Amino acid sequence: MAKAKTTVFFCQNCGYESSKWMGQCPACKEWNSFVEERITKSSKDTKARIRDTVALPITEVKSEEHRRKSTGIKELDRVLGGGLVNGSLLLVGGDPGIGKSTLLLQVCKNLAANGTKVLYISGEESMQQIKMRADRIGEFSTKLSLFCETSLTLIEETIAHEKPEVVIIDSIQTMYGEEVNSAPGSVSQVREATNTFMQIAKGQGVTIFLVGHVTKEGVVAGPRVLEHMVDTVLYFEGDRHASYRILRGVKNRFGSTNEIGVFEMRQEGLREVENPSEFMLEGRPKDASGSVVACSMEGTRPILLEVQALVCQSNLGIPRRTTVGAELNRVNQLMAVLEKRAGFHLGNCDAYVNIAGGMRMVEPAIDLAIAIAIVTSYKDRVMQEGTICFGEIGLSGEVRSVTMAEQRVREAAKLGFTRCILPASNCKNLPVVEGIEIVGIASVRDILSLCTK
Questions:
Q1: I want to staple 112 with a disulfide (CB 3.0 to 4.6 A). Which of 144, 214, 364, 380 is the partner?
Q2: Same domain, residue pair 255 and 285
Q3: 35: containing domain
């Protein structure tokens, strides 16, 4: 039968489909995001398929424990929840040049060395380019095969012929299906390609990594349905001009999304940073006002980092407030609390808050560190050497308790800190930790008394 061509319009931001062009997407409210695409549909009627399976009561369904396979990189295994699950579909996103391909090539090296058959499919680089990167990383096993292609039909045939256990797709935006009449990277092509790889992963039990480009807003390019279709979404963060990289799990059907992995980029590839706290505190100034060490929890891992603040009189009509690594609205709220509840006149001051090391923290437990850094900079005071702090601050100026206080204190003692400032409510159930003094604080009014002149 002849095939009919239908013209539809897709939102490039969320994937919403419409039969006509619209200026604003009714789903995500984005302006001028609709693009025209032609989809070929068969005009032949198809009958509904008779399924061999039937619905079962949940009590009769047998639950099987997912067997995990280690990638050989502990930081990646931590983010994944213990390793790779057979038949899973993973999406890895990040800025260009951040190290996505390098990380996955190192995963291929470790898996191939352990006897796992791996197929690396690239739609952006030639085999010679991949080989040049591989020579910097080290020696590879013959279990790793390279294939440079963008056609979904040829890729399906190759996977069926090679029968690999792990497949790398670099990148999903370069893949195209011949039955979809639109350019590679369009909404239709990305959705079709992801759906094809999902069927391969679930049907053949193959673990598939998808590399995704990101937009200027920092999210994976293509429709949001792309993230809903995959099992795990990982984001590679960090400044590509700096040496550190942070791997963060945004979605994980087989584990927690609170863990992060820290890497350092070197000439021979990415190196794991087993102790991020020590790495983040390197080069910390001594006897400097506006500098304090905080402790934040990323999943089950306590991370110590330096919070810096610079407060000075403003020459502008509206004072300037700038943050790097912390949420701007949260900093403005803390400054309002300090002015109202503690009597610090910050309304006519410029304030600059920075989390050293490039980390991005949103946990409320760093509120106390930000407040202390602002106060010490404003009053030009210095915190006692070897002091660490954590706690959440409410609008009434109270310092509220946080979770996992014992783990935070023990991590601080392990790194040589001698004094810990924490919420007074956390001190009640906190066991004695040798080598560190515990100081409880109940209100922001007590911050100035904790500083030295």
A1: 144
A2: no
A3: 3-42
- Please give the average per-residue pLDDT across 283-309, as a whole number: 90
Residues in the chain: 453
Instruction: Quote the CA–CA distance of 302 and 420 in Å, as a whole number.
Output: 14
Strand order in the sheet with 387-389: 321-324, 349-355, 301-313, 291-298, 387-389, 419-423, 437-441
Does position 147 have pLDDT exceeding 60, yes or no? yes
β-strand 89-94 against 232-237: which pairing, if any?
parallel
**Gap between the Cα atoms of 244 and 355, Å rounded:** 14
Around 192, how many Cα atoms within 13 Å sit in the side-chain half-sphere? Answer: 22
pLDDT tens, position by position, 180-190: 777 787 777 88
Q: Indicate if 340 and 250 belong to the same structural domain.
A: no
Q: Does 138 reside within a domain?
A: yes
One domain for residues 393 and 287: yes
Any idea what the Cα angle at residue 189 is, between residues 188 and 191, rounded to 5°?
A: 65
3 state SS for 81-99: CCCEECCCEEEEEECCCCC
Domain count, the chain: 3
103 plus 244 within the same structural domain: yes
User: Phi and psi of 298, rounded to 5°?
Assistant: -115, 95
Q: Is the Cβ–Cβ distance between 231 and 89 less than 8 Å?
A: yes
| Percentage, residues of the chain above pLDDT 70 | 91
DSSP type of residue 235: E
Q: Could you tell me which residue, 309 or 225, shows the higher pLDDT?
A: 309
Report the sign of the C-alpha dihedral through residues 265, 267, 270, 274, in that order.
Answer: negative
Q: Are residues 284 and 270 in the same domain?
A: no
Structure tokens at 371: 């407040």
> Residue 175 sits in a domain of what CATH number?
3.40.50.300
The CA-CA-CA angle for residues 112, 114, 120, to 5°, reads: 15
In terms of DSSP bridges, do strands 269-272 and 207-212 run parallel, antiparallel, or are they unpaired? unpaired
Which residue, 245, 274, 303, sits at the end of a domain? 274
CA–CA separation, 362 vs 119, rounded Å?
38
Locus of tokens 């591989």:
134
